[in-house]
Amino acid sequence: MPITLITGASGGLGKEIALALLKDSTEVIGIYNSNDISIEGFGKALHTLKADIRNKSDVTKITDYVRENFGKLDYLINSAGVSRDGLIVNYPESSWDEVIAVNLTGVFYLIREMVPFLKNSDNPHIINISSRSATRGSAGQCAYSASKAALIGLSMSLTKELSEYNIKVNTVLPGFLNTTMGRLNETALKRAETESVLGTLSSPKEAAMFIATILKTTKVTGQIFTLDSRP
User: Fold this and answer.
1) Residue 52 — very low, low, confident or very high, per pLDDT cuts 50/70/90?
2) Between 122 and 40, whose confidence is greater?
3) What is the mean pLDDT of residues 214-225?
4) In the chain, how many domains are there?
């Protein structure tokens, strides 16, 4: 049974990914920080651990947990993310630092520590969840867009660096999703729907199904998958 570690597993896309993989007979280590993981019905296949990936000590806790309980990791999905919106002329440094710490630095910390466990897998994958904002930009989201764009660069470099260990690294860029972090006000929601050539937005469940499919591939790496219907 494959072992998957998912950050941000308590809600939104992370929770949907956990559900999709659990239903597909995958053992899941769900990392959460603020809210508990409310997933039932999967017994011992779901493991939960409270940790803040911004803190090296918490990443060490995750590392120890994986080592002591599994000794290997098949899939690492970096889904944790935060956005602190505001125009740059009044944007506080503390908000910038928080967004970069969660969306980029914490991902770096975790990947660095998980690579030795991924090497023990027959088909190891890393999937980093970026955003359409990384390539489109979004007014009032300078920190978020910058962090998600940097995540693409990190992924592309790791694709080449980790290929000798057969570790596949791919990046997924969801469009607007109906999640807690991505919830839009009514005006923004209608604008996003208008921009969509299908007249509707993506769902976390569909995005999770797509990600679960990527994990079954053996020769797909270094790709940027955009899950959106806006040109």
Assistant:
1) very high
2) 122
3) 98
4) 1
Domain that holds residue 31: 3-227
Rounded to whole angstroms, the Cα distance separating 80 from 120 reads 24
Active site residue 144: yes
* Segment (H or E) for 4: strand 3-7
Structure tokens at 143: 């920190």
Nearest to 147 by CA among 137, 132, 134, 128: 134
Token digits of residue 45: 């296949």
Q: Which residue do the tokens 């990791």 mark?
A: 73
CATH of the domain at 145: 3.40.50.720
Indicate which residue of 75, 109, 144, 165 is catalytic: 144
What's the pLDDT tens digit per position in 1-34?
999 999 999 988 999 999 999 999 999 999 999 8
Q: Which of 59, 98, 224 is nearest to 149 (CA)?
A: 224
Q: Does the model's pTM come out above 0.85?
A: yes
Distance CA 109, CA 34 (A): 19
